[in-house]
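Q: What would this complex look like in 3D?
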Amino acid sequence: MADIVSLREGLAELVSDGDLVAMEGFTHLIPVAAGQELIRQRRKDLTLARMTPDIVYDQLIGAGCARKLIFSWGGNPGVGSLHRFRDAVEHGWPAPLEIEEHSHAGMANRYVAGAAGLPFAVLRGYVGTDLPKHTENIKPIECPFTGEQLTAVPALNPDVTVVHAQRADSHGNVQLWGITGVQKEAVLAAKRSLVTVEEVVPELTPRAGAIVLPSWAVTAVAEVPGGARPSYAQDYYERANTSYQEWDAISRDRERFQEWLADQVYGAEVKS
Amino acid sequence: MSSYTAEEMMSIAAARALTEGSSCFVGIGLPSTAANVARRMHAPGLVLIYESGCLGAKPDLLPLSIGDGMLAETADSVVSVPEVFNYWLQPGRIDVGFLGAAQLDRFGNINTTVVGGDYTDPKVRLPGAGGAPEIAASCKEVFLVVRQSTRAFVAELDFITSVGHGSGAGDRHRLGLPGAGPTLVITDLGILRPDPRTAELTLTQLHPGVTLDEARAATGWELAVAEELGRTEAPSDRELTVLRELTAASQ
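A: Here is my prediction, written as structure tokens for the whole assembly.
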């Protein structure tokens, strides 16, 4: 059964320095408030995994929380670069960042294998690209039935997965809908999980296309209204595209970023 | 005829390439703009597939990201990200993969990973692969939209993120890549297609007002040119109106 917790105590309990943490969300339902709370708790040496590290991972990297990033697309969607990520890779600021780079199909399948309790996943992918030269976790494998050459990627089993969802009931059953990305697989692949939700309701009502993560598959649930902003939560609020555009200027400059961090993260109250 | 920019010509030429009723795996930016112009012009039944899992999205405006809410709200079906790659893309169900690139070489291989330096110490770190390697591998064919310049059209890629025609004809088959690879490259200067014998990208068409010398000067290798070089039809007033309304409404 999932515990209903506050964001602060949930993350303090579940995430330790050095952990492999996945905070998933494919444009939609990005656990931004949780990411900023990890910065506030001054977590260090994290290995961060995510298919599409966007501005909250840029913030975690810039704040010096990450040692390594496992990812498949690191950009500010529709805007351009993640400048803190680039600064870390290109100049080692604020600390060198080790990277493990995949394609989306490879990352998605790493979570699928993790959720399925298998050691690896098989896909038709990466062939002919330079990615396998630099990423050890991409290996060729022969199909035992047809002899076809395929690609294997190992399961990704985070110590902690954090995702955001629309709602949960008071027992900790979680419901999310719209673009659900790879969140189900990321939660099931993880040793521990925290789900932040827009609201905790007495009872979940069925919704077309919704996924339910049963309470017994989740470690903790925290009510964090607006916890995905500036990304969006379908049927709750829209994506703040201007925030993504503004992040470009804030993140471009180290000093401006640090002012933002002091003001908006360290200086801000915990949301829940 | 209204005046228009090279950028507008490129978007419209790309839109024209998409045929009614086909399915198209759409990258964000230029490909998404072109696909949505096509849907408002000659291809209302074009099936747009976004890697966020939106199958058959029908956005009213241009999305800023591949996962904007209106894509999910207007889609025929919204599936998980593992599903979009494993069940829809990988088996070769999707007709056209529509991609952009930071760098492209003469065989239509593309780089969206690093530019300059080496991989571990790059001069410029780009966002990376995203869905592109498998889109380029598994769609029945691939269209690329890239602004033509010596920065983008390079003799040698700094990194092969996604495979076009590898090192030439027959390479895709040898690598076991199921799709036909890039069959069309649309730029702001003209259109290139792979030579049927060598798979080398060959300039087959220039946009109105563009000279062959300009196209050659914007290419980082000795550009192959078709014997019969065509001329793109200038954008019609209607095409320009649709494109401009769409981009203005999306600001």
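A: To summarize the key features: The mean pLDDT of chain A is 96. Chain A touches chain B through 54 residues (CB under 8 Å).
Q: Very helpful, thank you.
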